[in-house]
Task: inverse folding
C-alpha cells in the first residue's frame, strides 16, 4: 500500500493494463502506485488466509483470490492482498463486481491512515466487509463507514454466515515458522 507513484508522468489506463509490473502495481487516476509486499509475514498470512477460505469453500460457499486486480472506477484499480468472493460470483479477468471481503495485510512501511483511505475506496466500490491485519501489532481491524475499527475479540466474521477467522490462530501459526 505504498503511496509513491513509480512514474512521473500520466499513464493511460490502456498502458497500465498492457504493462507487466513485478510485483503488480495499482493505478490511481493516471499514476502507477507500488504496493508494499514481499516480506515473509505478509506472504505467509496471505497463504494462511487463502488456505482457510479454500478449506472451507463448501461450508462457507466462498473462495479466496490472492492479489486479484479490481477496477473500482474507470481510472482506479486496486489489488487487495486477499479478496473473498461468493461461489457463483461472475468470473472476471479483472473484478468489476465487489467481492464479499477485501483483506489488506499491513507491511512495516504501511500506515493505518493509508489503510483507512483504501478501506474507504473499497467501501465506495461496494465491498461490505473490509479486514485489515497488522502483523506488527498482532491485531485486526474492520472497515467501518468512516474509519477502521479495532476488533478487540480478534475474531473476524461475517454476520449471517458461519465465516470466522481467529487472528490469534493465524499469529500462532506464523510464530511457529
Result:
Amino acid at each position: 500500500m505504498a503511496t509513491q507513484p513509480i512514474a512521473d508522468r500520466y499513464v493511460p489506463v490502456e498502458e497500465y493494463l498492457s504493462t507487466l509490473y513485478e510485483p503488480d502495481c495499482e493505478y490511481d487516476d493516471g499514476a502507477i502506485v507500488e504496493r508494499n509486499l514481499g516480506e515473509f509475514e505478509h506472504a505467509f498470512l496471505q497463504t494462511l488466509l487463502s488456505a482457510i477460505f479454500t478449506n472451507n469453500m463448501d461450508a462457507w460457499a466462498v473462495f479466496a483470490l490472492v492479489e486479484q486486480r479490481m477496477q473500482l472506477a474507470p481510472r482506479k484499480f486496486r489489488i487487495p492482498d486477499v479478496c473473498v468472493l461468493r461461489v457463483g460470483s461472475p468470473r472476471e479477468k479483472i473484478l468489476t463486481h465487489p467481492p464479499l471481503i477485501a483483506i489488506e495485510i499491513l507491511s512495516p512501511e504501511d500506515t493505518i491512515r493509508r489503510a483507512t483511505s483504501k478501506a474507504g475506496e473499497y467501501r465506495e466500490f461496494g465491498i461490505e466487509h473490509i479486514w485489515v491485519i497488522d502483523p506488527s501489532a498482532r491485531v485486526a481491524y474492520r472497515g467501518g463507514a468512516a474509519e477502521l475499527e479495532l476488533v478487540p475479540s480478534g475474531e473476524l466474521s461475517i454476520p449471517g454466515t458461519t465465516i470466522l477467522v481467529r487472528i490469534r490462530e493465524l499469529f500462532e501459526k506464523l510464530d511457529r515458522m
Observations:
- The chain has one domain: 36-176.
- Residues 40-55 form the longest helix (16 residues).
- The mean pLDDT is 91.
